[in-house]
Specification:
The structure holds three protein chains of three kinds. Chain B is mainly α. Chain B is built from eleven helices and no strands. In chain B, helix 1 packs antiparallel against helix 2, helix 2 packs antiparallel against helix 6 and helix 5 runs antiparallel to helix 6. Chain C has a three-stranded antiparallel sheet with strand order 2-1-3. The chains are: A mainly alpha, B mainly alpha, C alpha+beta.
Chain lengths: ~300, ~220, ~100
């Protein structure tokens, strides 16, 4: 199938399997996009992992451990898809820790308090589930299929996050303040999360139908779904321009696109520390993989 | 604290502290598949701790979280084996294997308890522990010729024996075909003494809970 | 080694492909599949199969339109109408049959 026919095929809703012939450009775009998703799940573990150890009740500890476990499980599913497209897991991990490949902006920031733990699980996961639900329609079928399990598990994370936030909002003034401060810290990165508002017709990931929605579409969906939920708790969104216009479109202050670019290219406040942490354990436990996997290879 | 409650809290503390230690691997285990598997084991251990604390809490007129989080470090009844920070896979698996062996012996005794509630809970826990034992054995089989693992087993053996009350120790020795350590080797590992690493663990564990006293989380 | 995992959601349901795990042998693969595809009690049972054991078969062509394999190969509607006409009033209606047999 030549490239033009393949393009028409995916644009008319056609789906592609691992063993199907596909243009090189499609395959390399898939690897890049899916690998970044896998990296994000794996790096997304680190801002929350340390709070597993500090969770303030047994129930919270269990729920947070299960959430982080899900994220590792997602990275396993996603890297398996990348691997079947031709890039081995070891290579993905090597490119991640050397800074060659990227991961989502929100996982480059510190988690300062238990308030952040709630806001991340509620709102970062809400933003992520919007992107991931759109991927259920991805033209690459093996990726679309695992997204079902991923979305199902993410829905528990949002419940957990909302429960953490609601409990704190029903608590002392100090606890309420922890939530507001966390929201203030996370709002900027959340608004950058879905990317700059390029037209989807110019987005190569949309052209190949790897993505099925544009960046701004996803952001509007996030605002529409979650701003009312934030407001009803008496929290303030730190953007004086935020409002829903009469035609139903959310208006907001221009997100800091320079910050987004700076952060995802390896210059976030926690980027280097987290990559170093991952590098340390990958190296320290390399012997286990060689003992266990070498003889099986 | 009655003898019965004391015994329950001992096991609960072991499960809580080991579950806490094992959950340190969630997100950074040697492979992604192992990460998921080992995290389930950590969660089960915390889950067992919670069920045991609930049982003890009814007798003591308190609740599980209060028992788990709000005691002074000196009041914890955990064995030193589970308290140490062992962030390398050879020691983690050696401890896991030894602890599961000891725990199987302890649970078997508990299942014969005259107290129906205790016996019933022990039977429930034992069913989940079967997965843990399968996991521990498959790793032992894989690593048994690996010097790091052999050394770790030898190093942790006295502390592992000390998890059990004296009358159950011969079973442990028989099961693993290892001689019981002398009393001088056991010193420092007996229940009642604590590793230096317990206090920093408890400090971190209670950090959020202590930050706003009396709050609900 | 890669093992493919098939999952049965509830008793009686067909096993459907769930995903795959990387493991050194079947014992590890079972343990890993158990947690990756069943930890939320979402599975009744799993099949864990070495990928090498799976043979994919494709290329199903029907160039000569062998319609007897398909529903559209059986245009019963028109034939039934003709047959009913021919039977005319001599055949009992379905309603009468079921009433009589009750």
């Amino acid at each position: 199938m030549d490239e033009q026919r393949f393009l028409e095929y995916v644009q008319s809703g056609g789906q592609v399997e691992t063993t199907d012939r596909m243009p090189d450009d499609y395959r390399s775009k898939l690897v890049k996009f899916i690998e970044m998703h896998g990296n994000s799940e794996l790096m997304g573990v680190l801002p929350e992992r340390e709070w597993i150890l500090r969770a303030p009740t047994l129930q919270r500890k269990l729920a947070l451990t299960a959430k982080v476990q899900d994220e590792v499980g997602h990275s396993q599913l996603i890297y398996r898809v990348v691997e079947d497209l031709g890039k081995p897991r070891e290579q993905c991990l090597a490119d991640l820790i050397s800074g060659k490949s990227k991961f989502h902006n929100v996982f480059h920031y510190p988690t300062k308090t238990w308030g952040d733990v709630g806001v991340i699980a509620w709102l970062v996961d809400a933003a992520a589930i919007i992107s991931q639900k759109a991927l259920l329609k991805c033209s690459y079928a093996p990726y679309a299929r695992i997204m079902k399990k991923i979305c199902w598990e993410e829905s528990f994370h949002i419940l957990h996050g909302r429960d953490v936030v609601l409990t704190m909002m029903n608590g002392t003034d100090e606890q309420r303040e922890l939530v507001q401060e966390a929201l203030n810290r996370w709002w900027g990165p959340l608004m950058q999360f879905h990317g700059n508002p390029i037209s989807k017709e110019d987005d190569p990931m949309y052209i190949w139908r790897i993505k099925s929605q544009g960046n701004e579409e996803a952001r509007q969906q996030f605002l529409d779904g979650y701003v009312p939920q934030i407001w009803e708790l008496g929290l303030t969104v730190p953007d004086p321009k935020l409002r829903k216009s009469d035609d139903g479109v959310w208006e907001y202050s221009e997100p800091d696109w320079d910050e987004l670019k700076h952060v995802v290219t390896g210059h976030g406040p926690k980027t280097q520390e987290r990559l170093e942490f991952r590098r340390k354990f990958l190296e320290q436990e390399a012997w286990v993989r060689s003992v266990v996997l070498a003889e099986a290879a | 604290m009655s003898e019965k409650v004391q015994k329950i809290v001992e096991i609960a503390d072991d499960e809580l502290i080991l579950g806490w230690r094992d959950s340190e691997w969630t997100g950074i285990a040697p492979s992604l598949e192992e990460d998921v598997a080992f995290s389930s084991i950590a969660q089960n251990e915390i889950g067992h701790a919670r069920a045991l604390y609930e049982l003890a809490a009814r007798e003591l007129g308190t609740d599980a979280d209060t028992l788990a989080f709000d005691r002074d470090p000196g009041e914890y009844l955990s064995a030193p084996l589970v308290e140490e920070r062992r962030m390398d896979w050879a020691h983690t698996i050696a401890r896991h294997f030894l602890y599961e062996t000891a725990d199987e012996i302890r649970l078997a005794a508990l299942k014969d308890s005259d107290d129906a509630e205790v016996a019933g809970l022990a039977a429930k826990m034992d069913r989940e522990e079967q997965y843990h034992r399968l996991h521990a054995r498959m790793w032992r089989d894989r690593l048994q010729d690996e010097p790091r693992f052999v050394d770790a087993l030898e190093e942790l053996w006295p502390a592992a024996v000390a998890v059990l009350p004296e009358e159950l120790r011969p079973q442990m020795s028989e099961r693993l075909q290892l001689d019981l350590p002398s009393n001088s080797l056991l010193r420092g590992f007996e229940r009642g003494s604590h590793s230096e690493e317990l206090r920093p663990l408890l400090d971190e564990m209670t950090m959020v809970r202590r930050s706003v006293p009396g709050a609900t989380w | 080694m890669i093992f493919e995992v098939f999952r049965q959601e509830k008793k009686g349901a067909a096993f459907a492909h769930a995903g795959s795990v990387e493991a050194p042998d079947a014992t590890f693969a079972h343990a890993y599949a158990h947690e990756q595809y069943g930890r939320r009690q979402e599975s009744e049972a799993l099949w864990v199969v070495p990928r090498d054991a799976i043979h994919e078969v494709h290329d199903f062509h029907d160039e000569l339109h062998q319609t007897y394999h398909r529903v559209d190969g059986y245009p019963l509607k028109e034939k039934l109408r003709l047959a009913r006409e021919r039977a005319g009033g001599t055949a009992k209606s379905v309603d009468a049959l079921s009433a009589g047999g009750g």
